[in-house]
Amino acid sequence: MSGTDRAAVVAGLGVWVPPGVVTNDALAQQLDTSDEWIRSRTGIGRRHIIAPGESSGDLAVEAGRRALKSAGTDHADVVVVATSTPDRPCPATAPEVASRLGLTGVGAFDVGAVCTGFVYALGVSAGLIESGFASTALVIGADTFSTILNPSDRATRAVFGDGAGAVVLRGGAPSEHGALKGLHLGSDGTRSRLIEVAAGGSRQRSTGLPPDEADTYFTMEGRAVFAEAVRHMTASVQETADRLGWATADIDKVVLHQANARILAAIAERIGVGSERFPSNIDRVGNTVAASIPLVLADANSSGELQAGQKVVLGGFGGGLSWGSVGLVWPDISTC
Fold it and tell me: What does the record list as coiled-coil region(s) (predicted)?
């Protein structure tokens, strides 16, 4: 982030998950799996799934509305939606979300960085505020991966859930609680095939051939992704801490993308801090992709696990490959 005297400050937090719940036992009635198999490999016990006809945009609108209420405002100069499951391939989801929130006429666009999407969207939005282009920004992470999973793939169906989370950023001073600092972003496109939906884009469509059905669904190479996630999220969190002059022992909470409970445990071990500093809700919502970080922030803030004045690093890893992190001192805000 820039060295200016203007910063993007977290001023509101809102989340939403669809009411439909699919437990591990329910999945076991459809697939060759069990509650024990899923929990031992992922730490997940259930996930929320949208109803037929619902979309990422619907979830984004509700999370955005709640974030605006939390911030005590009905306005934002720009709306940024991080999603890899947009309502349609074209146009972007953000303009319609903005309109439904009564924000017609403001800047609105999508960011696609899969599970790192929320961190990337925070970075872009913070830059707009720091530059003076915007005084407030509504940043939303929303995904409905249930719509792109192979119905017969127990590995992916066990992991992913649907949800949305949002924050309101406002212009303020770098010294304020809630000011975003130490942004770190990275990518490695040479490993893009590890996490992908192969069909549906220009590369496949330009062939003029119908796609293989398997290529229309989300796939990932689990073991390789595990290793890359641990390596890059660990390094990114440490890079952000270094930029802020924080020793590892100074960090009160490390709030990471909720990909897998074993990944979180491995990162905690590498960083050298106890797992109690890593808030987690993956057991209740699964991997919600771009919604993951704000959802766990909301849970920790509401429960009191996250306290105003604590030093916090947010971090994510996802397709691209992409990764990123950012730090802040947690502000005194309510969750809606």
Answer: none
Active-site position among 24, 287, 301, 336: 287
Does a structural domain hold residue 147? yes
Q: Which is catalytic among the residues 24, 48, 115, 301?
A: 115
Mean pLDDT in the chain? 96
Q: Which domain holds residue 229?
A: 181-329
Q: How many domains does the chain have?
A: 2
What pLDDT shows up at residue 4? 65
The domain boundary residue, chosen from 136, 154, 172: 172
257 catalytic? Reply is yes
Q: What is the mean pLDDT of each run of 10 residues along the chain (336 residues)?
A: 78 98 97 96 97 98 98 98 98 98 97 98 98 98 98 95 98 98 98 97 96 96 96 97 95 97 96 94 98 98 98 98 98 96
- Boundary-marking domain end, from 115, 140, 172: 172
Q: Give CA–CA dist 325/120, Å, rounded.
A: 9
pLDDT tens profile 88-132 = 999 999 999 999 999 999 999 999 999 999 999 999 999 999 999
Assess whether 162 and 25 both reside in one domain.
yes
Residue 287 annotated in active site = yes
Active site residue 177: no
